């Protein structure tokens, strides 16, 4: 069954009104009033009765009263008589003239005089209709009135007498129950009754709102055979809300808009203060809106209703309303996020006067940080941009620029990088402390500008008394050295090679797997989860030979990051792709690499693009999708990437692709580049990136000898120390005492040594080292 736009006729009321019409045709004149809240179908029922009357040969004179013509004398009567091609009567004799015209028409047919929205009838027309009502007892005349009659303000006295006339039968239309909504859905499209509660909640049982929801839902899902479980609100719903609002009195409309502006912070006393009204009058207006079906339990039933209500007023007026809401909530001590929402909604309106708004800045800053931590970077960016616009203090504006850059970097680091000149200038001017300076320095490093980062750190170091080895400043120097280990002037203690996050606080002799999992256990319970150090720990766990455990951590952490910002999700997806590559699950690696590259444009990856490209190229190569791998390798990468450990991932993946395509010399060149960089940077990633195995394959294909192997290749520094001491015959306890670690740690190191070298005992380990020594001699 297709969708219909005219469902839900009031069949019961229509039947009773048809009976009254039949009595009128028999010579017993009557009047009927159809009333109810806006949207319940008064106009539709009135027109349905008129159609029945016309079908039976009756003469129908109809008019619609409007607020704009309420002061136009005989405006409604003029509409009625125009239906019979008659001129409006002389105002001096209008009462008798209207009566004579109607009775003359009734001599040849039943006459239906229908007036919609009757409360806006002008006084003179109301007197004419009232005069007519008193003189139709034996005439074939039905006076049919319809309209919403609010409790306040009361209509003008003639109109009030008209609708309260004893000859006027009253038909009050109610909103639909859930059962009636179920019938509406069935009549509409055969929709199942189980959907009725959701539709009733959204539309409040108001037929006009429900019909609009049906139109929007059908437009959203044109191929649907029945109503979906959740209705969709769109243009038709917004228009229906506006139409309902136009039928209420101005005071109720003002309360509705104030409630819409306050949103979840609406309360009767707040609305009263906002409108300079009384709580009683506001409460009555809220009751009217509830009866209409817009509100339930003091809240809007549908989130689209507030926007529809505010769309009815000019933007400047709407902005002013939100500005008053912001000040009201600020004075009430409401949460910063609530006040910030109002300030941002009022942003199109310039603050009064030329000066700043200090209290607004004090609200927007914490609200932005709260939004950023919750993963809502868009709201954080909007709040910080507004805060900078309202702030006049130069130092505070610099701090806001730092916060804005950090928030923008959560969406797209390339966009945030446009603010680097201003940030670097503020840093050199001394407007940023070490904590704030970390933001532009991190951006400079990520976007391949290490010399600028080094110069900024040098300037920062000259102004601080912090020690260069144990302070936030020292961590910045360490990060510079790890990312760009060959940059002149960046030398410091530390291990190069970490692309993401700060290094875990661990003993150098501690088992790397245990250290990584300790970090992950600590960070996994954070809210929000700090993605960069988590990714660093996952890479550490993978490099330590435990990709299966890293994959389990990826699965455990994924739910907490589904609502994170695009950059956080992209970094996590790229890391998970690397983990799955090492695990050999190339389908999963390809999927996560695609996700990472789709979430963040290439220009936003900076030097880090080597990570997702590594996984994507490797996965494509292993799955035989060599065209895909070639296309990925054609994507431009920043040349500065090759000064960072990201190059190792990229070169290894490219070498694997060359090898699969039988370009053995090109593959050998990439694998040797991996070797040379690892040697220069004192990195041992041979297990995570086993370049030597594939270099041997490429070398054999070219007719050369295999690469010379170092016996302890693939071991970490801690594992090497334990291996040498064990080969010399020391016990685990003796090794532990000598290296200042526990015997358990020694045992774990030895287990890894045996596995990596393919050995089973200390004797085999000693034999391996003796053989190497003999060969060297």
TrEMBL record:
Sequence ranges assigned to domain HTH luxR-type in this UniProt record: 708-773
Protein name (database record): HTH luxR-type domain-containing protein
CDD domains: LuxR_C_like
Gene3D superfamilies per the UniProt record, alphabetical: P-loop containing nucleotide triphosphate hydrolases (3.40.50.300), Winged helix-like DNA-binding domain superfamily/Winged helix DNA-binding domain (1.10.10.10)
Keyword list, A-Z: DNA-binding, Transcription, Transcription regulation
Species of origin: Streptomyces vastus
UniProt cross-references to InterPro entries, sorted A to Z: AAA+_ATPase, AAA_16, P-loop_NTPase, Sig_transdc_resp-reg_C-effctor, Tscrpt_reg_LuxR_C, WH-like_DNA-bd_sf
Keyword check for NADP: no
């Amino acid at each position: 069954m297709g969708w219909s736009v005219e469902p839900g006729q009031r069949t019961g009321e229509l039947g009773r009104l048809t009976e009254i019409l039949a009595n009128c045709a028999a010579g017993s004149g009557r009047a009927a009033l159809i009333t109810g809240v806006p949207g319940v179908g008064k106009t539709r029922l009135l027109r349905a009765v008129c159609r029945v009357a016309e079908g039976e040969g009756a003469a129908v004179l109809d008019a619609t009263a409007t607020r704009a013509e309420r002061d136009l004398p005989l405006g409604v009567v003029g509409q009625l008589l125009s239906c019979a091609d008659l001129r409006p009567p002389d105002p001096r004799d209008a009462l008798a003239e209207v009566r004579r015209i109607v009775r003359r028409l009734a001599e040849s047919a039943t006459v239906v005089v229908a007036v919609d929205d009757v409360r806006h009838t002008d006084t003179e027309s109301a007197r004419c209709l009232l005069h007519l009502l008193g003189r139709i007892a034996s005439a074939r005349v039905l006076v049919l009135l319809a309209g919403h009659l609010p409790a306040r303000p009361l209509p003008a006295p003639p109109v009030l007498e008209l609708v309260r006339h004893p000859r006027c039968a009253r038909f009050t239309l109610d909103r639909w129950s859930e059962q009636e909504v179920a019938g509406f859905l069935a009549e509409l499209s055969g929709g199942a009754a189980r959907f009725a509660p959701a539709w009733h909640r959204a539309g409040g049982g108001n037929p006009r709102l429900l019909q609009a929801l049906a139109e929007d839902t059908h437009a959203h899902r044109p191929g649907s055979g029945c109503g979906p479980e959740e209705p969709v609100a769109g243009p038709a719903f917004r228009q229906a809300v506006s139409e309902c609002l136009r039928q209420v009195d101005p005071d109720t409309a003002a309360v509705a808009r104030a409630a819409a502006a306050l949103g979840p912070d609406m309360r009767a006393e707040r609305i009263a203060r906002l409108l300079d009204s009384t709580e009683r009058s506001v409460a009555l207006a809220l009751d009217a809106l509830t009866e209409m079906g817009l509100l339930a339990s003091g809240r809007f039933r549908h989130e689209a209703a507030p926007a529809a209500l505010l769309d009815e007023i000019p933007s400047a007026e709407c902005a002013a309303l939100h500005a008053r809401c912001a000040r009201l909530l600020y004075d009430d001590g409401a949460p910063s996020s609530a006040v910030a929402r109002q300030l941002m909604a009022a942003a199109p309106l310039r603050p009064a006067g030329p000066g700043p708004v200090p209290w607004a800045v004090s609200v927007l800053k914490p609200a932005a940080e709260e939004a950023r931590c919750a993963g809502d970077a868009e709201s954080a960016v909007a709040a910080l941009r507004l805060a900078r616009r309202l702030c006049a203090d130069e130092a505070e504006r610099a701090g806001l620029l730092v916060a804005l850059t950090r928030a923008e970097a959560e969406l797209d680091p390339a966009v945030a990088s446009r603010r680097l000149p201003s940030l670097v200038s503020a840093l050199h001017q001394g407007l940023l402390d070490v904590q704030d300076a970390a933001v532009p320095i991190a951006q400079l490093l990520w976007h391949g500008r290490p010399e600028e980062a080094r110069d900024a750190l040098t300037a920062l170091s000259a102004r601080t008394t912090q020690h260069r080895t144990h302070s936030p400043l020292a961590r910045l120097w360490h990060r510079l050295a790890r990312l760009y280990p060959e940059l002149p002037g960046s030398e410091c203690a530390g291990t190069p090679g970490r692309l993401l996050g700060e290094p875990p606080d661990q003993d150098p002799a501690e088992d790397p797997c245990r250290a990584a999992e300790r970090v992950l256990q600590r960070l996994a319970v954070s809210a929000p989860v700090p993605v960069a150090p988590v990714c660093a720990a996952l890479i550490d766990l993978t490099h330590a030979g435990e990709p299966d455990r890293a994959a389990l951590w990826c699965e455990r952490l994924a739910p907490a990051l589904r609502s994170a910002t695009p950059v956080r999700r992209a970094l996590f997806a790229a890391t998970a792709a690397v983990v799955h590559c090492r695990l050999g699950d190339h389908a999963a690696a390809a999927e996560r690499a695609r996700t990472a590259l789709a979430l963040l444009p290439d220009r936003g990856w900076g030097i880090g693009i080597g990570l997702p490209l590594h996984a994507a190229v490797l996965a494509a190569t292993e799955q035989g999708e060599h065209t895909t791998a070639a296309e990925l390798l054609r994507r431009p990468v920043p040349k500065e990437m090759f000064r960072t450990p990201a190059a190792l991932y990229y070169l290894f993946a490219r070498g694997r692709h060359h090898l699969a395509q039988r370009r053995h010399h090109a593959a050998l060149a990439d694998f040797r580049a991996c070797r040379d960089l690892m040697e220069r940077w004192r990195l041992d990633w041979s297990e995570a990136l086993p370049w030597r195995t594939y270099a041997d394959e490429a070398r054999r294909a070219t007719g050369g000898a295999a690469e010379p192997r170092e016996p302890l290749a693939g071991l970490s520094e801690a594992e090497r120390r334990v291996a040498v001491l064990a080969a010399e015959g020391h016990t685990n306890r003796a090794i532990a005492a000598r290296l200042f670690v526990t015997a358990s740690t020694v045992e774990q190191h030895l287990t890894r040594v045996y596995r990596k070298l393919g050995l089973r005992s200390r004797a085999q380990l000693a034999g391996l080292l003796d053989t190497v020594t003999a060969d060297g001699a």
